[in-house]
Amino acid sequence: MSSPPNKRPGRTIRSVQIAFNIIDLLQEEAGIGVTRIADELGHSKSTVHSHLRTLEERRIIVREGDGYRLGLRFLDVASHVRDQIGNFDIVQKEVDSLAEETGEIVQFGVEEYGKVSYLHKAQGEHAVETLSRVGTQQPMYSTSLGKTILAYLPPERIEEIAAAMEYEPKTANTITSPEELFEELETIREQGYGIDDEENINGLRCVSAPVKNDETILGAISITGPSSRFTEDRLHGELADYVRSAANVIELNTKFS
């Protein structure tokens, strides 16, 4: 679990903030140049150019013509990040296995800075395309992974995250208040799994089960698919059984690894 960075005391370094804002911008749109970056971030061209030169020297970004993109060094960084996460190989194996068995999208997520972060994703034979990618984050109130993880966090952490979230309605079914969220979390704890009933994307449903180490929540595993295949009966029956079984396998293998 991680506390929101803006809640921690202490000063921040402006130049580091600018550098990471540049990285975030290049992640959204590769190939843009100094002028566009300066306009987007509200800094002078000279300031942006100095930061770009430093990032390029450190092989963080690559210059191509008049524009820049993120460097392949990020692949190495990503690999090290996953290696530092305990029992990732166990999670990866079970996610891949469940995707192959069901033919759908299977994902594993963890909580970081009050959002759900996707740690691993596998696509089965019949999987539909979604915007989620490994490393990206989603709000916890509108996803089954997020709500399921949130349901099993310590009460004070639940309160902290719930109070900090902006409940933007993504669809007609999205939870839009802390009160609604708390009711949903209670339901999740009672039934042992969470549902996303077209709450994040119209036409997609998802079911998730918590993965715990004793009473500590480690993350959650989910299956996602089109509403035409993910009927109410399947969500609360066969599909819920799939994710609970997979979660149990991860828990057992983690405990005895």
Automatic annotation (TrEMBL):
Transcription regulation among keywords: yes
HTH iclR-type domain sequence ranges: 13-72
Gene3D superfamilies documented for this protein: 3.30.450.40, Winged helix-like DNA-binding domain superfamily/Winged helix DNA-binding domain
Superkingdom classification of source: Archaea
InterPro entries: ArsR-like_HTH (IPR011991), GAF-like_dom_sf (IPR029016), HTH_MetabolicPath_Reg (IPR050707), Tscrpt_reg_IclR_C (IPR014757), Tscrpt_reg_IclR_N (IPR005471), WH-like_DNA-bd_sf (IPR036388), WH_DNA-bd_sf (IPR036390)
PROSITE patterns for this protein: HTH_ICLR (PS51077), ICLR_ED (PS51078)
Pfam annotation, one family: HTH_IclR
GO BP terms: negative regulation of DNA-templated transcription
Boundaries of every IclR-ED domain copy: 73-256
Record keywords, A-Z: DNA-binding, Transcription, Transcription regulation
Keyword Ligase among UniProt keywords: no
Molecular function GO labels: DNA binding; DNA-binding transcription factor activity
UniProt protein name: ArcR family transcription regulator
Organism the protein comes from: Haloferax volcanii JCM 10717
